[in-house]
Every structure is written in structure tokens, then in C-alpha cells.
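Hello again, I could really use a second opinion on something today. I've been staring at a protein lately and its backbone has me curious. Can you walk me through what the C-alpha cells say about the fold? Take your time with it, there's no hurry, and the full record follows here:
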Amino acid sequence: MSESDIRKLYQSGELTWEDLLEITGLHSSQLYEVLYDLIQAHESDCPAIDGFGCRCGEGTMKTVNAKGLAALKAWVEKTSGADDAGPLCLTDSRALNAWAAEAEESMLAGNPPIVEMSPFHTRSGRPETFTLSSEMIADSEGEQ
């Protein structure tokens, strides 16, 4: 099962943290520790590790281009339930760069360029996702 499949099942409510606890038979803190240990063990041997963590995604580094940043801003404005005023708003340049970095991390992991907004920040009160189209992505040399 891919990360994308797990995310979809989780977002749809078909897979919950409680399900993972039931499947594994572990207490919440034990499951968290096991997952943390597995990540640490992988990262200690990962040949693609850098300051941001594991970079196991193959291929050319893909980045979100200006069209993608504009689309992310529009999505955040439409989806967010937060009052977006002030220097730390969800659509200032630092926040948009963080949304773009999330999509780039997703691509590095071999998944589509997808971002997720937590239920706490959405108008709907549910997790919301946005997948950037190929025209919103450039490779590391700036080609689309």
C-alpha cells in the first residue's frame, strides 16, 4: 500500500489511528515509538539523506513554479477558515513557500505533488488536500 493510498484512506475516514492501533495491537505511545525507530533506522542508512531528512525519491528534483504558487495561494484562500490578516497569515510568502515545500517533499517521496490542510484550519472542519497539476511544476533546471 502506498503512502498516497494510506493518506486517502485516512482522509476518507476508512483508516484511523485507532485502526492502526488495533492492527498492531500496540498502545498509542508504543506504535509512535516503533514508527519513530523505523524512521531513524532508515535515515541512518539512507544514501539520500540531507538536512531535511530522507530523500529517497528518485529522479530530477521537482519544484513548484510561479503558477503553482498562485494556485496554492488561491486554494489556501478558498479552503482556509482562518482570519488571514496579519504578518503570519496562511498566504504570506513564507507560508506559501512552506506549502510549496510540502508538495516538493511529496514528489521526492515518489508521490503526486499534494498538500494537505488540517481540519483545524479548514472551513469544512475536515482535512482538505490539493494536488498541483504538471503545469505548476518545474524540474530543478527550471523547465516545466
In short: The chain has two domains: 1-47, 57-144. The mean pLDDT is 78. The first strand starts at residue 49 and ends at 50. The radius of gyration is 17 Å.
